[in-house]
Amino acid sequence: MEYESSLKATEIAEELPSAVEDCHILIRSYRNIIAELSNRVNELYTEIKVLRERLNTNSSNSSLPPSKSFKKKEPKLPSKNKSGGQAGHKGHFRSLLDSKAADDIVDCKLPANCECGGKINSIGECQRHQVYELPEIKLHMTEYRLEKGYCLCCGRSHIGSLPTGITWGITGPKLTGFMSQLVSKYQLSRRELREFLREQFQFDISLGTVFNKQKIVNTALAPLVSNLLPEVKQSSSINIDETGHKRDGKNQWLWGLVSSTAAFFSIQSSRGKKVLESLAGDFSNIVISDRYNAYRYFNSAHRQICWAHLKRDFTRLSEKSDKIIARIGAGLLACEVDLFKIWHEFKQGNIMREELLRKALPIRKKVRELLEQGTYTDPKLKAVRFCKNLLEDFDALWTFLSIDNIEPTNNHAERCLRRSVIWRKKYFGTRSDYGSEYVARTASIIMTCKLQSKNSFEFICQALKNYFLKTKAPPVLITV
What we know:
Blueprint: H1 2-14, H2 20-55, E1 148-150, E2 157-159, H3 173-184, H4 190-201, H5 207-226, H6 228-232, E3 237-247, E4 250-258, E5 263-268, H7 273-280, E6 286-289, E7 303-305, H8 307-318, H9 323-347, H10 353-374, H11 382-392, H12 399-402, H13 411-427, H14 433-451, H15 456-469
Parallel strand pairs: 3-6, 6-7
Antiparallel strand pairs: 1-2, 3-4, 4-5
Helix pairs in contact: 1-2, 3-5, 3-15, 5-14, 5-15, 8-9, 9-10, 10-11, 14-15
């Protein structure tokens, strides 16, 4: 457009006007060109503004993870201290276990004589020193010999039966569970798992067998994980979050519903309200989540919006080039700092809940005033829509102030999802329904065991033993 306008101006300039009317025509032409260029300049200015904001996007003002932050941190000045332990630093030492816990005790006797030739006399005391070492690790292989025979009457062939709980597979419950843990919890690939088993146990196994063993684990955990969701929804509050997942290159989402003692994960093809309706439609207590629009499925009176996300939103507003919006963002950030100051005082037991509510009241009023001011800025800016949306859900910002055991952030759900996010970055998703189920089910069991301070390996091994024995699996949640 600029080139065409310049070309027209050049053509007009080459034809000098011969009359006053032609001069007016030339002036009108130049005005049109100036108007076109002015519109184009405004468009480019808006585009530059958007690109600058995108360039300044980082983990502190958006949901962008730190690993993808474009804004580089300023390098720290090198410390004058040498690396390693610092003078005056309080040391930390491992405490000795009771001698009864030792597998072996070796008495180290004194020599008979000193270097000077004198006789050494024992004072009846000893210095204890404990050393940990791996025992020789090898797989225990059992050969089952099934006797063969035939019926003397009809000639039918017969063969002995395997003991109860023993399958025709080449791995038992513990080894199967161990392989599953290396893949799901410690995030080895199947090829890395094969290499580990070959190096450490001299045990060769095919990729197909690894795949089949994971299918067994997936089936064994199915009833346990299906019981987790009702247990999670019995809590007085749940944290909900979702993260992206790839299934054959297509976008899907890993949903997490987490309580203080249990976690349920499910991979769904949608990120909409229908998923929330199917997973938590009958939940009537408090839901802690971010501001994602789908969570409006729950009434504001039963929600707590994450203030960690709000802090990033306020930071983004404070960094806008528009001075009015930047002032509003800075004011909201100051309110967030004041709010968490009194919240930490409450958590530390320095003030009671009544005092917390009293001190939070002016902060709440100030936040509402600032958001209302934000709705009167330029309607074309995203800040207006942000402020209006937040005012619609305003009550959901303060639920934690009046209800016990409600946190102001959704950090609990994000921590529980972090392991799955790291797995996704390493392996780029799944390629089958079984794979998606395996990822969600193992994540549910591993995280639930962590929340309950249980050993997930022992639990999965017991679940596999019960699966092979065709008995009822143990409950996941601790019975209070």
